[in-house]
Amino acid sequence: MRYAVISDVHSNLEALEAVLKDIRKRKIEIVFFLGDAVGYGPNPNECVEMLKDRCKVLLAGNHDWASLGITDIEYFNEYAKEAILWTMKVLNEKNRKTLSTFPISKVMKKENILFVHSTPKEPEQWHYLLTLWDAEINFHNFDQWICMLGHSHQPFVIEKFPSGEMITHRREARLGKGERYIINAGSVGQPRDRDPRACYVVLEGERVEFIRVPYPVEKTQKKMSEAGLPLLLIQRLSEGT
To answer: CATH code at 154?
Structure first.
C-alpha cells in the first residue's frame, strides 16, 4: 500500500503543481483527492482538469458544491462567498460537469478505507472534525480501519485504541492493525496550521507521513489580486492561517 492523499486545493494551481511534482518524484502512482478543488484561488478550471487527469478517487467538497449551486453559500463568510461568486462566473461548462460527477464520500473495500471531505457523520452537512470529542462521535459513524478526510485544513492523525483511548499525531504515525484512525490530509492550496507550505499525506504500508512542499506563493497572490479576489484571502496564503 503506497498512496498520496491530497485535499483542499482551492484553485491554487501553483501549490497543486508543486505537490504533484513531489508525488511524481517519490514515484507514487496512486493519488486520492478529498474535495474542494475550487474556491478562494484564481485557477479553478486548470485545477479541476489537473485533478481529473491525475487522481484515482475524486471527491466533492462544500466549495465544489457551492460553485454548482448545490450548497447554499449563505453560511459562508463574506470572503468565501465573494470567491465562490467569482468562481461561478469563471468555471466553464466542461468543468462544471466534471465537478458534478464527484461524490462526497467513497469506500475503498480492499484498502478498508473511507474517504470523505468533511465527516463520516452527515457528510453532506459539512461539519468540522477538530477535537477528540468530535472524533469520538465520528468513530461511531464508520466501520473501516481508516477514515481519510479534509475540510478543516488542519493535518493530523487521531488514533483510537481498542481500550477507547485516543491520541493525536501531528507529523507522522505508525498504523496498527488493532487500532482505528481518522486522518486529516491538511490542505494543498490554503494551509491553516501556520505553515504556508502545501500539505499532503503519504500512506505507505503501516506508516503515514505529512509532506510539506514549498511553492511560489507570490505568483498565486499576484493572480488573485489581478482577479480582484478578497485581500484577506491573498494575505493568508503567506501566513498559513
So the answer is: 3.60.21.10
